[in-house]
Amino acid sequence: MKNIYFLFKLNRYIHSTRLKNLGVYLLHLLGKRYYGIFIDPVLSCNLRCRMCYFSDPEKRKNMKGSFKEEDLYKLADAFFHRALKLQIGCGAEPSIFPYNNTLIALGKAKRIPYISMTTNANLFSGKDWLELVEAGLDEVTISLHGLHKKSYEYFMEGASYEKFHEAMTALTSVKQKYPGFKIRINYTVNSDNLLELHDFFDVFGSYTFDILQIRPIQQIGKTNYNNFSWDRIYDCYDEIIKKIKINCKERGITCLVPSKYDIVKEENKDSGITESTYFYISPRYIWESDFDLNSDSYESYSKRTHRGKKLLKNVFHRKKSFDRDKKNLNYEVI
Ligand SMILES: C[S@@+](CC[C@H](N)C(=O)[O-])C[C@H]1O[C@@H](n2cnc3c(N)ncnc32)[C@H](O)[C@@H]1O
Ligand code: SF4
Q1: In which order are the strands placed within the sheet that holds 285-286?
Q2: Beta-carbon neighbour count of residue 212 at 10 Å?
Q3: Cβ 332 under 6 angstroms from ligand 1
């Protein structure tokens, strides 16, 4: 089912929200795959990154809960047959969950075309990475908030710079064995760590990875680091990014980087169908507030709540009024 790429491309090329919604409705009606599952199997984290809400002691107290292994089988039966993508790790840290291999293997058994994970990488050993890929993980995104030991450990409080390098070494050797496995680095950038990008390939150039994403900081709650202004570095942004882009091109690395104009107005980009195709799942919240994992499945819940009719209604709505702040493709602000 590698026509997932065709569907992703189609989504990008179709600008009409109405047409997209019609597509979603038809895929639902025909029993086809059409949504992405974004799951936080645990709601806690081993770190307290300064740009993240885990740096807020109050928030940390509330971020609790973990699925049991048996819950994963229920989730797989309820949702996986219709999923195009399974994203593990959205708003918390998946590496502290002990059953990731089971979760991934269930996704593969239910033929989900693409399974990815986002992690701070500090807790996984070389053996862990290999097992994740052998269970069926297609892509990993590892998060980085600083290039050098001092800034990395400052911005990612509780993390070890050496562990991150160990992870890059281990992933480089996994990639040799499984070349199709994709490694993405997500550098969350702010005006105090942008200049370091000058040295990116001096520090990480010897590792193998496929995608480098530079992702501007966003306000995602109460956080320890609070500088959201780009004024100080606006003028040198282009020069730094140019160097990164040239290096990526030479090495065959895909570079995802916002333009100077986009960083200052960075907001969640909604393709217009996010509400109906984004299924967020955590120990506290499973897709919809009245969904009961012990008795519901996607099909039974859809029948009970007349989902088909609701999806059809979306086709004729003039303007969507979806909750943009709550939902984002890579992480959930809970
Ligand atoms: C909330 S984390 C959850 C997954 C995992 N714990 C990790 O860090 O990769 C998801 C992504 O959000 C990024 N992130 C954290 N704080 C952010 C902020 N204020 N603005 C934008 N992205 C942020 C992280 O770097 C990470 O790539
Ligand atoms: S960014 Fe990820 S690793 Fe850092 S505190 Fe937030 S959830 Fe944890």
Answers
A1: 254-256, 211-216, 182-189, 139-144, 114-119, 83-88, 35-39, 278-282, 285-286
A2: 25
A3: no
* Number of folded domains that form the chain: 1
CATH of the domain at 13: 3.20.20.70
pTM: 0.92
Taking the CA of 60 as reference, the closest ligand is: 2
C-alpha 146 to ligand 1 mean position (Å): 13
> What are 79-104's pLDDT values in tens digits?
999 999 999 999 999 999 999 999 99
Number of the ligand closest to the Cα of 141: 1
Residue 167 is assigned to a structural domain of this protein: yes
Q: Which of 56, 120, 217 to mutate to test ligand 2, by most ligand atoms within 8 A of the CB atom? A: 120
Burial class (CB in 10 A: 0-12, 13-18, 19+), 316: exposed
Ligand 1 pocket, mutate which of 188, 228, 333 (most atoms under 8 A from CB): 188
Per residue in 150-186, pLDDT (tens digit) is 999 999 999 999 999 999 999 999 999 999 999 999 9
Q: Give alpha helix (H) positions in the chain.
A: 4-13, 17-29, 57-62, 69-79, 100-109, 126-135, 149-155, 161-177, 200-204, 237-251, 260-264, 274-277, 298-304, 307-316
Q: Is residue 326 part of a domain?
A: no
Domain extent at residue 146: 4-316
SS3 annotation, 26-53:
HHHHCCCCCEEEEECCECCCCCCCCCCH
Helix axes 69-79, 100-109, angle to 10 degrees: 20
Distance 112 CA to ligand 1 centre (A): 24
**Which amino acid, 296?**
D
Q: Is residue 42 lining ligand 2, measured as CB closer than 6 Å?
A: no
Instruction: Quickly state the pLDDT bin for 260 (edges 50, 70, 90).
Output: confident
